[in-house]
Amino acid sequence: MWREKSNRPRSWIAPSFPLTVHVVSWVLGAILLAFVALPLIGLATTQSKTTLAEAAMMPDVRGAIALSLEGALLSALLAAMFGVPLGYVLARSAFPGKNLIGALIDIPLAVPHTVAGIALLIVFGRRGILGGPADQFLGLRFWGTIAGIVVAMLFVSAPYTVNAARLGFEAVDPRLEKVARTLGMGPWRAFLRVTLPLSWRSILTGLTLTYARSVSEFAAVVVLVYYPMTAPVQIYEMFLRYGLDQAAAPALLLLLVTLALFALLRAFAYGRPPRGEQR
Amino acid sequence: MKPLGVAVEALSLAIGTFRLKQIEFSVSAGEVLVVLGPNGSGKSVMLETIAGFHRPDSGRIFIGGRDVTLLPPEHRRVGFVVQSFGLFPHLTVAANIAIARRRPAGPSRADPADGPFPVGDVAALMKHFEIANLADRLPNALSPGEKQRAALARALAAQPALFLFDEPFSVLDAPTRDHLRGELSRFLRGFAIPAVFVTHDYTDAMTLADRIAILRNGELVQIGTAAEVSRAPATSFVAGYIGYENILAGEVINADVGRATVAVGDKAILVTTPNPLLSSRRHVRLCIRADDVHLRFNAQEDREQSLYTNRFRGKIVGLRAIGPVVTIDVDCGFIVRACILGRDAQTMTPMMGDLVSLEFRADRIHVAGE
C-alpha cells in the first residue's frame, strides 16, 4: 500500500535488536524462502514453450481451467453477496454469541477438506437434506454440475471474505457514519458514500483470497463432484494416468494463469494511490 | 411553538446498565451550552440522543422549533462535530463540504430559518472559513486548525439549526487546544445557531460556555452560567470537578442566622455564607478556593484582627510550582491548599516543613452537599 514518505531515514536494521539477531533471522528466513521458491522454479524450468503450448491446446486442460476460473468467480460473487453483509454485522454490532459465530466462520479453514467434502455430500448429495429437494423442486443438482463445484469452493473459501470485510468495516470509525447521517444522508447513502469507499480495499483483498482459494480447491470438489473436472482434479487425473511428465505442463499452465489474474487484481486494488492518502 | 433554539424535556434513556435520567435544558439561538462531565457520565450518549442515534424512552427534543424526538438524524438539522473533527478521509476538503450540500429533506423544507450561507454555495463557505486554498487537499494533510474550520464549514453546509460538539479537542496537545478554542469561540459568536459542546475538560467549559451543565452518572447535577457554577457549585462533586482546591468534610456544630460553626477534624471553622444546608444537614462540605487562603510566613507580622477570619497554624507539607503560580499545602489538622504567585515565592521562600499561619475569610467559604 502506498504510504507517505517518512522523514526518518529507514534503516535496514530495526534499532531494538543487535545485528546478530538480524543475521540469524535472515538466514533462517532465507531457508524458508528457498523452500517455497525452489519447487515453483523447478516446475517452471522443466517445461519448454512447446510442451506448455501443447498442454494449452488440449481441450480437456483448457476446459478444466476455464471451469475452475468460472466456478471460482461464482464462488467469489456469492461470498460478496452473503459474506460482506455478515462482515458488517460482526464489525458493527455486539450480541451474545458473536464469538461463536466468528469461530463458526473460521471452521472451514481448520477442517481437512476431504472431511468438508463428505459433510457437503451428506447435505447436497442425491439423498441430502438440501440436495434431494433442490433437485426435485428446482431441478438444481449438485452432483456432476458446476453448482456442486461452486458449493464446495464457497464452503472452504468464504471465511476469507467475511473476515476481511469485518476487519475493513471495523477500521472505519463509526463516528464518520454518524456525521454522515447528520449531514443529511440516510443509512444506505451513508454506507455507500462513506463506509464502503473506506473499506472496499479490504473487501477486495478478501474476495481475492476467496477467489484464489476457490481456484486451488481440490479435496472438497473431488469428493462432492468428480465430473466435470476442475483444473486441480484434471491435473491429478493426468498425474495418476500418465505420470509426472504429462501432468507438469498443465500444472505450470494453471500456475501461470492464476498468477496473472492475481497480478491484475492487485494492480486494480492498489494500483492508483489517491493523492495524499495515508492509512 | 418554541423559539428557534433547542429544548430537551425530561429526556430519559436506558442502554444496558447505563441510564440518562430526566435530562432537561434549553439553549437559545447563538448560545453555547457546555456539558461538563467525567468519562462515563453519559455526555456522548446524551449528545447522540439529541442527534437522533438513540431513541429516548421518554421525553421530548425540540430543535429549531420542531419536535424532532421521532425523526432520524438526517432530518434533524444538527451539525455534528466529533473527536478529531470527523472529516471523511477519502474526500477532499471541497468534496467533504459538497457532500453535505443537499438540504435535508422533510418537514424542515418550509422553515425560513436558513443559515447565513446560500444552499449549495461551497465556495462561499470555504472563503468564510479561509480554507479556499485547501479545497483539493485530503483531510490527512490538514493541520488541526484547518480540520476544525473544514468541519465547521461542512456542518454549516447542511443548514443546521443546532451544533453538537462531542469532545472535538480531546486528542490534541494543550497549546493547539487553546488556539482552537479561541477560533471556535469566535466562529460560533458569528452565527445565531445554538450549540451544545460536550467535554470533560474544565478549561474548554470556561472558555467556550455561556452556560455550563454538569453531568454525572446520567444526571444533570447543575446548570448555570460559568460564573454561577464556579461561585456556587451545587455539590462537592461539582466543586471538585470545576477545580476547587479545598473541599473539607465537616460536621455542623451550631447554626445561627448568618453564621455557623463547622467542625473539621478537631478544628472549628466559622462560616458566614448563608446556606440552607447549614441548618438542614449535619454533614456538609466546605469549599474554599486556594487563592482565598492567605499565608503569613512571619509570626510576628502585624495582623489585622477580624472576627470573621479563620486562622490556623500549620506546617508546609507540599510545594508545587505550576506556571506562574506556586501551590502550597499546609497541614493544620487538615490539609489546606493555598497559592501564591511565583514572583512572591522568590521573596517569601517557602520551604517544606516551615511553620506558617493561614487565614481564610468566613464569607469566602462555599457550603455544598456531599
What does this structure look like?
The complex is a heterodimer of chains A (279) and B (370). Chain A has 279 residues and is mainly alpha-helical. Chain A has a single domain (59-270), classed as MetI-like fold. Residues 1-5 and 273-279 of chain A have low confidence and may be disordered. In chain A, 76% of the residues lie in helices and 0% in strands. Chain A contains twelve helices and no strands. With 370 residues, chain B is α+β, with helices and mostly antiparallel strands. Chain B has helices at residues 43-51, 93-98, 122-128, 144-157, 174-189, 202-208, 226-231, 236-241, 277-280, 342-348, and strands spanning 6-15, 18-27, 32-36, 58-63, 66-67, 78-81, 162-166, 195-199, 211-216, 219-225, 246-256, 259-264, 267-271, 283-288, 294-296, 309-322, 325-331, 335-341, 355-361, 366-368. In chain B, the strands form four sheets. A six-stranded mixed beta sheet of chain B has the order 6-7-8-3-9-10, sandwiched between helices. Chain B is globular. Mean pLDDT of chain B is 87; it is low at 104-113. The interface between A and B is medium-sized, with 23 and 36 residues.
Give a brief rundown of this model.
The complex is a heterodimer of chains A (279) and B (370). Chain A is mainly α. Chain A has 12 helices and no strands.
Count of folded domains of chain B: 2
Q: What is the CATH domain class of chain A? A: Mainly Alpha
Q: Largest chain-chain contact?
A: A-B, 23 and 36 residues
What is the N-to-C order of secondary-structure elements of chain B (H for helix, E for strand)? EEEHEEEHHHEHEHEEHHEEEHEEEEEHEE
Tell me the radius of gyration of chain B.
Answer: 25 Å
* Distance, first to last CA of chain B: 39 Å
Low-pLDDT parts of chain B are 104-113
**Extended strand count of chain A:** 0
The backbone outline of chain B, from C-alpha atoms, is globular
Give the biggest beta sheet of chain B.
6 strands, mixed
In DSSP terms, counting alpha (H) and pi (I) runs of 4 or more, how many helices of chain B? 10
Taken in chain order, the helices and strands of chain A follow as HHHHHHHHHHHH
Q: What is the number of helices of chain A?
A: 12
Rg calc of chain A: 23 Å
